[in-house]
Structure formats: C-alpha cells, structure tokens
Amino acid sequence: MEMVFIQFAKRDSARTPVAIFMVVCLLIIGSLNLVPFAQADESTPEKVPEPWIHEDHIFNQWGQIDSSQTQEFYINEEWRIQIGHGNGKLRISARNITQGSQDMVDYQCNIQYYINGTLYIAQFSMVNINFKIGNTSFDGALASCSDFELKRTPIVYDGAVPTFDCGIIFKGIRINTLGSSASTVDLTLTHHIMADWNDTHVKIEALLDLNNSRFYQQSGTEFSSGEPFTAEINYFMMVANPEAMRISGPLRPTRCTNTTLEYNLTVNGAPLTISKLDMKDTFTIHDGAGAHASIGYSFMEPDLESGWASVTHGFPNMTYRSTQWMKSDPEITVYHERVTQSVDPSATMTMLVTAIVVAIVAAIAITSVIIIRKRKKKKQGKDSETLKKP
C-alpha cells in the first residue's frame, strides 16, 4: 500500500537545520506528462514563462463555502495572492475573520495538488508568537495586531528565471505582558519567489522587530536589561481534501511521530516529492554590536486525532533591551511539471476558489485548539466590497 507522508527530518546536531518533506505517491509518472529536465544552451538560456499571479484585498463580507455565501464566518479583511506555475498552485494570505463571538488573524501558505483527480491542499499557517524570559512566558497573538498589509513587486528576470517578492507585515502585535499594554512587536514575512522550470522556490525572510517589546515579572517590575530570552514562532500543518474538510476536518495520519506524518491513499506509481520545507535553524540577531549569526531549534508535535501537527521554530539566546530584531530564513520548494506556458486564469479559477474555501475552514478549526485574544472588528452588514490596491 502506497502512502502520502510528511517527514520532519531529525537533526544529528544543533547545527543541522531541520527540514519537513512532503512526499506524495502520485499517478504513473507518464500519465502526468512529466517532461525530463532539459538543459538549454548556456550561452542563450530559454526564459521560463512568467507565473500567473492573482491578488485580492477584500473586507467586510460574509464568507463562502462551496461557492455559496454563508453566515458561519465573516471576513473583516483579507489580503491574498495566488500563484500558478506548471501544475502547482501556491496561495499566501493574511486574514482577519470572525466566527461567532471569536475573532482571529492568521497567516497561511498553502500548496495544492491533485491525486487521482482529487484536490488535496497542504496548509502551513501561523496564529501566534511566544516569548520566554526567566520562568515566564508571554504570548503575542496575531489577532492583537493593529493592522496588516500585503505588498508585492513586479516580476523581473534573474537570468532566465522570473522572480518577484511578496511581503506581509503584521503591525503592532501586542505582547500579553503583566505590566504594560504598550509592549508590541512587528512581524514582517517577505517571500522571495523564484518560478523555475520544474520547481517554485520560496525563501521566507521572517523579521521580528523587538524595539517596542517590554517584559514584566509577576510583581510588576520590568525584567532587567541583559536578561536572556527566547522567541518562538508557532505554526500548524495539515493535509485536507476541500470537499471533506467541512464535514470531517483534515486527513488523519495513519501514523505520527515527532518527525513524520503518514497518510494512506489509494494511488499508483513511484513516490514523487511535491514540496519541501526547510526551517533553517540558523538565524540572525541584531543588537548594538551589529548583526551576528546564532543557532535556533525546531520540532513538530503531531495530533493523530485532530489531523493537525504543530511546528515550533525557536530563537534562543537573545538579550533583553539589547536585541533590536531577529531574522530567520525558512525555505519552501514546490515541485511541479515542467512549465510550458503561463497558466490561463480562466482554466484555474474554479480550483483556486476551492482552495480559498478550505483555507478559510481550516483556519477556523485552529481556533478550537488555541486561545486567541479578541480584537475589535467593523461589520457593515452582508454587503461585500472589494478594494484594489493602489
């Protein structure tokens, strides 16, 4: 029996980066029209066709499930960008939604692909940041941010490969400190995207601005300057079929460890690597002495019953009131068929809309396992309005 599995590779030492591999047994390779990688003349390399990109900024409208409007959740605001290249689809978004009396803000990076004609989506999402100093932990939920924004650059060619940047910034994330409500961090996620012939490479530059962060002890006294502290960014992973997601939730792994999620699927052919996520445990600390490298950690904690797996990316050995910012560079590689032409939006719109549905429902599922601080919202009835970014 073939299996779909996600492997979170074990590191042999603290200096070996942790990687997550998504390996999927697909249809017989010949039936996918996979073309062997062709080497072009180095003197005149053939340019890779540009990826198809679709960007939306929407707010104040009811959500959709199965292409029908629903009052189960309300979209206060959402920035999203969808990228089609080869037979691969990538979706990056930041959203503020309300379900019942609960508000949440999240970041998502989703990869979609077909197995035997059925759409599956691998979702990678984030909803909060955690800080540890002394014996005290402080939470910074994205739901507490004052604002978020998505921007992207035009496509430019790096040699024969089209590239562009997509940046999301979460501004003023409040840290749940004991002595001050003015303690905040800004999180910027800059996606450097290279859309090559057989893969799309995404380097995510995650920058955490700590200049306005303050930590207080139980007594209300601020921690002393020079105290070491750690920041942890918490992610969630899952694989889902959009049609079944609303009823049964994510696919349940048949086996879970702290390094692997395995899924039984009825497929034929040899294993094919669909995507790879490398957490890159090395990161950069910037303080009064300038920028210098440090070593972090990462690990996965799967939940067999829910189908979700939590991933923690930790950044220790920072210095309170001295560290100004830290930056990490996780990387995602999405493998796909060799590109023959730019994707026709009319041929992919149905699939992209379906991906939006599963992303929304999956994000709502996260609220059941994480306590998220409420933020104020503005509802303007059932009317929907779409804004185009200037």
Textual characterization of the structure:
This protein is mainly β. The protein has a domain at 3-30 and 51-130 and 196-210 and 230-374. It is 7% helix and 53% strand. The protein is built from 2 helices and 24 strands. It has helices spanning 242-248, 345-366; strands spanning 3-8, 19-25, 52-65, 68-85, 88-99, 102-115, 118-133, 136-141, 147-152, 156-158, 161-174, 184-195, 199-209, 228-240, 255-256, 260-264, 271-278, 282-287, 290-295, 297-302, 309-319, 325-328, 331-335, 385-387. The strands form 2 sheets. Strands 1, 2, 9, 10, 11, 12, 13, 15, 16, 17, 18, 19, 22 and 23 form a 14-stranded antiparallel beta sheet that branches. Strands 3, 4, 5, 6, 7, 8, 14, 20, 21 and 24 form a 10-stranded antiparallel beta sheet that branches. A hairpin with a 3-residue loop joins strand 15 (255-256) and strand 16 (260-264). The longest helix is centred in the C-terminal third of the chain and has 22 residues, at 345-366. Residues 1-38 and 348-390 have low confidence and may be disordered.
Helix % is: under 10%
Largest sheet: 14 strands, antiparallel
Based on CA inertia axes, which overall geometry fits? globular
Class by alpha and beta content: mainly beta
- Contiguous uncertain segments of 5+ residues: 1-38, 348-390
Radius of gyration: 21 Å
**Mean pLDDT over the full residue set:** 76
- Approximate strand percentage: over 45%
Task: Count the beta strands.
Answer: 24
User: What is the helix/strand order?
Assistant: EEEEEEEEEEEEEEHEEEEEEEEEHE
Number of helices: 2
Give the N-terminus to C-terminus distance in angstroms.
52 Å
